[in-house]
Amino acid sequence: MNKYQASVKTPFAHLGLRLKDDQLVGVEFIDRKHEIPPSTETAKTLCAYLRRYCQAPGDVASVNIACKLDGTPFQQKVWKALREIPVGKVMTYGELAKKVGSSARAVGNACRKNPVPVVIPCHRVVSANGPGGYAGATQGTLFNIKCWLLDHEGVQHS
């Protein structure tokens, strides 16, 4: 059995999509040459959403896919708040921390643990002095993905 129920090649990365009981449980950056065709209707919907996002991010609303995410109650609270940040907008770690009643560092750690990046847009949380990190990386491939996503959404981040 495949580890992924689908995969999508995008301009910024190849994304492996993991679903369990028809709920999204993971989006992973993978190294793979060919896409994995969607094995469920939910996976098909998610693939279509990601392709539309890559073509015109401002034309798509958040995808309405059920997610089953393992995380602490605080992480769940942060991930819920991330879904409320619209395409083309950002919040600083400090602003989001104020919104959820916590610290910027705790928000950053919750963003780092986000199991479904892009779908839950943790890339829209930035440092007060620049883009900040992505999945804990402040340079390299993951950081470049965050910058691509922000550029794609028309966000100034440098």
Would you write up a description of this structure?
This protein is α+β, with helices and mostly antiparallel strands and 158 residues long. The protein folds into two domains: 6-59, no CATH class; 73-152, Winged helix-like DNA-binding domain superfamily/Winged helix DNA-binding domain (Arc Repressor Mutant, subunit A, Orthogonal Bundle), CATH 1.10.10. It has helices spanning 41-55, 73-82, 93-100, 104-112, 140-152, and strands at 6-9, 14-20, 23-30, 91-92, 125-126. The protein has a three-stranded antiparallel β-sheet with strand order 1-2-3, with helices on one face. The chain has a two-stranded parallel ribbon with strand order 4-5. Strand 1 (6-9) and strand 2 (14-20) form a beta hairpin. The longest helix has 15 residues, at 41-55.
What secondary-structure arrangement, pairings included, does this model have?
Layout: E1 6-9, E2 14-20, E3 23-30, H1 41-55, H2 73-82, E4 91-92, H3 93-100, H4 104-112, E5 125-126, H5 140-152
Parallel strand pairs: 4-5
Antiparallel strand pairs: 1-2, 2-3
